[in-house]
Amino acid sequence: ILKRMLAFSSVARPDEFARLRGGHLARGDGADTITVAAGRVAWTVRPSPREVTVADGAANNPRVRIEGQPGHLLRWLWGREGDAAVRLAGDPAWADYLRRMLAAVTK
Predict the structure, then answer these.
(1) Furthest-apart CA pair in the chain: how many Å?
(2) What is the pTM of this model?
């Protein structure tokens, strides 16, 4: 969902992505990161108002780290489970930002 839907759609539909409901928290320089982790696997989401890149591995000092069991995390990413299904470390506004970006590209 992160690489195939979020990263791809942010580039495939840039004008729509730029008009994200609620606005973007990320700066334009791509320095802000969000870490998503399931078990021993992690991804770094690097959002900007223009595009999102996703790389394997955890970021150092992300705005938020979202971690959970694979099934719960996947359902959380799809908006099918609430925040109780995952562990958040950092700014919860950035977890909400990730969910808003995912909602925009998966509608």
Answers:
(1) 35
(2) 0.94
